[in-house]
Design brief:
single chain, 31 residues, mainly alpha, rod-shaped
């Protein structure tokens, strides 16, 4: 159960970092 929670946290962090990276690229392309 604890392992599943850890995996969910890691996936969430990975998605957030990916979203931030995509936003940075979009902003860099705009300006």
């Amino acid at each position: 159960m604890a392992t599943k929670k850890l995996v969910v946290q890691l996936v969430t962090v990975a998605i957030l970092k990916l979203n931030a990276l995509v936003l940075n690229v979009l902003v860099a392309n705009l300006y």
